[in-house]
Amino acid sequence: MPKTVYSIDEARDVAQQRLPKIIFDFIDGAAGNESTKARNREALEQIYLQPRVLINVDQRSLKTSFLGREWGLPFGIAPMGLCNLAWPQTDQLFAQAAVKYNIPAALSTAGSTSIEDFGSIAKQNGWFQLYVGGAEEQAMGLVTRAEEAGYDTLIFTVDVPQVAPRRRDMRNQFGMPFKIGPKQFWDFATHPRWSFASLFAGAPRLANFPNSNSKQDGWDRNSGRGKIDFDFLDRLRAKWPHKLIVKGVTFGEDAQRIQAAGADAIWVSNHGGRQLASAPPAISFLPKVRSAVGPDYPLMFDSGVRNGDSVVKALALGADFVMLGRPFLWGTAAGGEAGLNNVIDLLANEISVTMAQVGRVCIHEIDQDVLVNSSQ
Ligand SMILES: Cc1cc2nc3c(=O)[nH]c(=O)nc-3n(C[C@H](O)[C@H](O)[C@H](O)COP(=O)(O)O)c2cc1C
Question: Does residue 376 sit within a domain?
Fold first, then answer.
């Protein structure tokens, strides 16, 4: 019987007990001294909401429209590589939850499930995220596969011109496939629940690259992605006729160029603190990008969201839709499908309660006025 958690921090604690350290650190870790990750969350907590009273908020809805369709909740599951390390078939559980809750779930290029398998479960709620890690033809091949598998939304991640070193991963010698030395053996042996389940399911792999070990068809997570530029974005835009989201944007001028290049949405993110070590908190970029792209352009936000109040804050500061990463891996690591649903339900309930307290009954009513204005 999985343990019910009452906060995302609790889900993280349970995940930490259940996962081998090498896996927990891969999920939890961030770039440099991890201060950007800490700032992401602290900055959200330092934004205050204004309680409002005597407004009829009895009937509230968390449904929202974004990118031309309706969603059940104003948040979704961000793309993450090698999710099945958290628990066997995590990608599939994400895809199922996407359908169940009518939310988007994104599969990473570095996903541990193939584009086709993920798409067959998530259907129109599945998005595919593109990294260009090797030759451009390889990347365009993935885009063709996504189109053939029926995806209607592609996320192009642009904030990894070079993969940032993560000290915990280096210390643990995290890599694919795992190096099983005495330290790793002990780590797995002392986490038998995870080790037996993962052994039984087979070690997770980069499922979009069946020949991962071959130089020609393989894909190296750590390969330089520095050649990718605005010209590539133009070629991608020309190739992909459906919805295109550009993820990892924090600078107004970049956002304007991406908007002019014909992207359908921009995703403000500092990659959960996993890339530029000395970046400001992601939320501090959101109002600036919003003012650069104008009031109506679709904007998404992630990085450091750990409760429903923070979803409301991001919506108030200019996001139309909010994504989270680690919390869903922690939920799944803590309790499989039930643990994942627990985290989604928790967030949804917190958003609903927060909306009642700030006097809003629907997502589109959440605006700057729900924030405490220092001049009041
Ligand atoms: C384990 C892990 C793997 C990730 N892999 C990818 C990836 O393959 N592609 C991508 O665009 N972002 C990736 N991200 C970043 C997430 O999409 C997202 O931006 C970030 O997790 C949001 O911050 P949060 O974890 O604080 O919610 C990854 C994040 C984590 C934690």
Answer: no
